[in-house]
Amino acid sequence: RFGSRPLFGRQYRSPHPSPQHPAVMPPKAAAVKSDSEEDDSDSGSEADAAEGPPTKKEPPRFKSLAEQRAHEEALKKEAMEDTDTIARLEEVRRRRETARLEREASEKAAAEEEARKKAEAEAAAEARHKALSERPTLEVPGPKEAKEAMMKLQQCTGDDFQKKHGIKGVGGNKLAKIKFADFKKMFDDFQDNAPLEELHKYKGT
């Protein structure tokens, strides 16, 4: 056989390996190669995980110059509206402040007026008390007012005074016939001797 016999001093080797001896890599080397490939695969996976998903490019904000200008105009409009809103709020604040000042001024004026009226009432009450404690001087009515004065005396004096001067139960016609001199004596007696209460009742204090 050619395979077992040397040809011209050299051993002949068939270019085709024998089926009994397949050309395979040693198991150890194959295992090493497999581990290396696994390491490369793992390192690649870790690098991919570290880098994360690829970023997606955002589309441009404005597709055209007209759209950009429209956006700018909208921003200007919003700014103007904000300015108008601030102005309106400022106007409301001024109005409220004015109303507050007016209300405080009105309340102050009302308090001062109430204090003035109270002081006047107290002064009037004190004056009336003082007047009631003093004996008033009555003005003597004239002849034409005598009848009315005697009717008033009937309302202010007691029975004793009226009986004394003969006017108790007497009507207006009979009172008109009383002489003025007699009326004058009656009135002077009332002025000098009547109680303070009757004098002030006649005077109307």
What is the strand and helix layout of this fold?
Elements: E1 6-7, E2 10-11, H1 27-51, H2 65-133, H3 146-156, H4 159-165, H5 172-176, H6 180-193, H7 196-203
Antiparallel strand pairs: 1-2
Helix pairs in contact: 3-7
Written account of the structure:
68% of the residues lie in helices and 2% in strands. With 205 residues, it is mostly helical. Among the domains are: 65-134; 145-204, no CATH class. A two-stranded antiparallel ribbon has the order 1-2. A hairpin with a 2-residue loop joins strand 1 and strand 2. Helix 3 (146-156) crosses helix 7. The N and C termini lie far apart (172 Å).
Task: Using brief descriptors, characterize the structure shown.
two-stranded antiparallel ribbon; 7 helices; mainly alpha; 205 residues
Radius of gyration: 66 Å
User: What form results from the Cα inertia axes?
Assistant: rod-shaped
Number of helices: 7
* Biggest sheet architecture: 2 strands, antiparallel
> Spans of 5+ residues with little confidence (pLDDT < 50)?
29-36
- Quaternary state of this entry equals single chain
Helix content: 55-70%
**Proportion of residues in extended strands:** under 5%
The secondary structure category is mainly alpha
The overall average pLDDT, rounded, is 78
Order of strands across the biggest sheet? 1-2
Intertermini distance: 172 Å
Give the SSE string.
Answer: EEHHHHHHH
- Tally of DSSP β-strands: 2
Summarize the structure in short.
Residues 22-33 have a biased composition (Low complexity). The protein has helices at 27-51, 65-133, 146-156, 159-165, 172-176, 180-193, 196-203, and strands at residues 6-7, 10-11.
